[in-house]
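User: Could you check the structure of this?
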Amino acid sequence: MNIDDSIQESLPAVLTIAGSDSSGGAGIQADLKTFMAHSTYGLSVITAITAQNTQAVHSAIRVSPDMVAQQMSVVMSDIDVRAAKTGMLADAEVIEAVATSWQRALEIRGTAIPLVVDPVMVSTSGTRLLDAEALTTLREKLLPLATIVTPNLREAEALLNMAPHAIDSVNAMRQAAAQISSQFDVNVTIVKGGHLQPTDSGTVIDVVYERASDNFTQVSSARIDSANTHGTGCTLSAAIAANLAKDLSIADAVRNGIRYVNEAIQTSYKVGRGAGPVNHAYALCTMPIVRPTLYNPHPFTQYLKDNSSKLWQQYTQHSFVRQAAAGTLSTHVFVHYLKQDYAYLKHYARATALAAFKSDSLKEVSVLVDAMQACVRESKLHVEMCAQWGVSRADMEMEQESWSSVAYTRYIIDRGMAGDVLELLVAMYPCLLGYGEAARIAANDPKTLRQGNPFWPWINAYACADFQAAVAQGRQVIEDLVSRDILGPQRLKRLVTTFCETTSLEIKFWDSALDING
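Assistant: Sure, the predicted structure tokens are below.
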């Protein structure tokens, strides 16, 4: 059996440099679970071993600095580490060993590797994990190597030598984030607001500061009333590192990481008698979308179709297409459809341009530019077909847009304005995927009339190799986006709903054409 190379391509490797948590909720245990949930391959360098449970850290011993350095050296000399994070680093000597080993690895590699530093100082149960000497070494040796640093309020205060609880507002968080980035030469600082006094809005605000652009972003999440928050800091930094390893932009890596932690808290369950862990595996447990296989090469697409009930079959085997394939469709109906679809294509091209604007991948932008050009070619086909029935381009331009077209195109644009690039592309997906599939079904049907059928060129335009290649290209963009995302239950449900609603609007679009004959 031949296995496609793309299916067997290695997962991006992510390294955690942190302590071991015997209760499994934080430290390297939390990090490795998070890496797996993000479809990355986890590596670990253990800096300390703790005896702890959900109630307290009972004791801890550090791993020798030499052993820490050896772990980093042997792992990074063999495996292509795409991103890394640090957590509990025990003491000044271990921090020094980590910083020196990291610099040496980068010199050997010759390329930068994103490093997320979680400045772990106090455990969730309140145990102090870093002394004054270690804090100084962290500031001077490790922070300047970081791509992103992720302190909570108390850690930000310690880094800046501020009094406890001095950071007591979002504005103070913004000032602290900018000061940390400036003082320690860190590109991005995230000051986490989970410990900020709750407000009436019921939200948690995390402040993200990007020094290069002097830009602040506030990410709001629902505040979850849960005791199961052990290891949230470890989990967030691990999620961000995993996202960076998958080539997400820093903004998307952070935003997706925050969402992952929030949903992991929402889906957590009781472990032990103290502060329990989040549910790192919630996405794996609730999202039946696996990696591509020989038998299911496009798992997200298949999931959407499987969960669109009978709509997808109704759409791809619509009476409009069946009548066109049989040559029995009314010319009047077909011309009406072509005029309306001509108007629709303009909006579809606008939506494609919006998707390109929202994308931060040049590869995706290139595909979307091709899709816009395909809209132009498709509109020319409509003009040519209408011409044989005496309808000019000017006539098509003056045609009033039907309510079914208005509802459909405005829905897509609204999804694009409200959501991210994946939500917009899923809204547009039924048009691309469905036309390709409906045309392929008709073209493969022996009952389809080709000779003397005025509608065959229309079917063939979507069944031909060029359009099928465009379908494959668009499908791969969506599958790639999903592979880099974490689709929790709520987000997945929203995407399925969007897909079903636009599929229903496609059906109504063809229904409205047939309805003009009464």
